Amino acid sequence: MPHRKQPMNTNFGPFRRLLAVGGVAFAGAIALTGCGILDAASDDSEGTDVSGEQFDAAADAAAGDCLPYEVLSDDASTFAIDCSGEDAFWTITSITADPGLTATGGDLTDTQAVYDACGEENGAFIPGQPWTDWNMIYDQTTGNVDYLFCIEAIDKPNAEGKTPVTPNTGDCMSSSDVEWFTLDCADAAADTTVTEAIAFDAADWAAPDVDSAIASCPGSYYEVTDLAGVRTTAVLCVE
Q1: What is the Cα–Cα distance from 30 to 72, expressed in whole angstroms?
Q2: Where are the domains of the chain?
Q3: pLDDT (tens digit, 9 = 90+) per residue, 26-42?
Q4: What is the b/e burial string over 56-86, where b = at least 16 CB atoms within 10 angstroms of the residue's CB?
């Protein structure tokens, strides 16, 4: 628990912090306990309590460090994990302490801050490129964001042989996946091949000419949208 928070905790009780995941497969946030003493905290729809040690360890996190798929490690004493380990899924590309932002109910009041910190392409699924996302650790009581960090998936197959890279022309994937994994075409689960990936210019993501792209597909296709489901980045013609 950072020293600057201790007096307030002593006077008013413990603060909860939340690790708010930007997107991908995360339906909710993961609650952080600043002091690690909220074992009996009530259920929170925004996430699950973790130890204060993980919050403290986040202070030492830096670009190049790795995180698991779920972002928080099962090890309550650590934040970043060994990049050579099998559970390493994300790389931190940047992390900013005390960015001067406010979160309300797991959302930033200024979402442009994410793009300012992580780039306009953050959260967009782009053919041939690894997934990107963002995260923040914030104080549930005050809404103050302690850390804002940007992450990128590691371009390597997971234990199931799935690589977190949006499929490109010639790549294979599984029609049963709910995420944009790329599979080795020799994999038994690879039942779909991208015959053409039609990527839109970033400037057109808000309103691309999807109909024209779809017309180029001789058969089936997928529309690729960003994590928020707002920007359309590509159309994948598949067979």
Answers
A1: 8
A2: 3-153, 162-238
A3: 323 333 322 222 222 23
A4: bbbeebeeebbbbeebbbeeeebbbbeeeee
